[in-house]
Each structure stands twice: as structure tokens, then as C-alpha cells.
Design brief:
Number of helices: 1
Distance between the termini: 37 Å
Shape: globular
Largest sheet: 7 strands, mixed
Radius of gyration: 13 Å
Oligomer: single chain
Length: 124
């Protein structure tokens, strides 16, 4: 099972970036999804999560700046990031809770499938 992130890169502070995650339909269409991130020297933290039906939850650090959304027919998850700050610099990971687990979770251990990550670097 493979989740593939794309769209990371280098952006100046205040700029915008959209990262994407493509997943097999078997683990996307009937599952809650999330974006986690891990900054250098720090643990992995939740950025945002979205239920199968489209309900969302954001970490306080990104609320009002990031938007998570999904395109179910395309089996693709997105994270639109605006007003980026240097502290947003991290590897961004896509995660799926797996088939039938349709509700959001803020518990990292409840995500079964993970991508390899895409690097986002915000320069000051």
C-alpha cells in the first residue's frame, strides 16, 4: 500500500504552497486522512485531519492558515498552506486510518498507512 506525497519545495515566508497525496482507492475513499509534519530535531505532530465526509480539525499552530481537503473521486488529499512561516519548515506526511475508519483522529497511532513525505522549507 503506497501513499505518495508531492508538491513540497522552498518558499519565502508569507508565501503559499499546496501539497498533495495520492492513495489507492482502497485506503482513501472509505477512510479518514491526515497531514502530519516533522521538523528537524522534533517529533512528528499533527497538522490537520479530515473525515471521510469532510469534517476537519487543525492544530492551533496552523489554524486559519492551512486548509485540508480531499477529492474522493481522484483519491487525492491536499493541504493548502498560506501565510507560511519559517517554523512551518518540516517534512510533511500523508496518513490514512485505513478502510472503514471514517472518523478523524488526533492520535498518530490510529493511522495505519503513511507516505514517505515531502519536504517544505520556508525561508525568512
Amino acid at each position: 500500500v503506497q501513499l505518495v506525497e508531492s508538491g513540497g519545495g522552498l518558499v519565502q515566508a508569507g508565501g503559499s504552497l499546496k501539497v498533495s497525496c495520492s492513495a489507492p482507492g482502497s485506503i482513501f475513499s472509505a477512510a479518514a486522512m491526515a497531514w502530519y509534519r516533522q521538523a528537524p530535531g522534533k517529533g512528528r505532530e499533527l497538522a490537520a485531519t479530515i473525515s471521510r465526509a469532510g469534517s476537519t480539525y487543525y492544530a492551533d499552530s496552523v489554524k486559519g492558515r492551512f486548509t485540508i481537503f480531499r477529492d474522493n473521486p481522484k483519491n487525492t488529499l491536499y493541504l493548502q498552506m498560506n501565510s507560511l512561516k519559517p517554523e512551518d519548515t518540516a517534512m510533511y506526511y500523508c496518513a490514512s486510518r485505513g478502510i472503514g475508519r471514517v472518523y478523524m483522529s488526533t492520535n498518530e497511532e490510529e493511522y495505519t498507512y503513511w507516505g514517505q513525505g515531502t519536504q517544505v522549507t520556508v525561508s525568512s
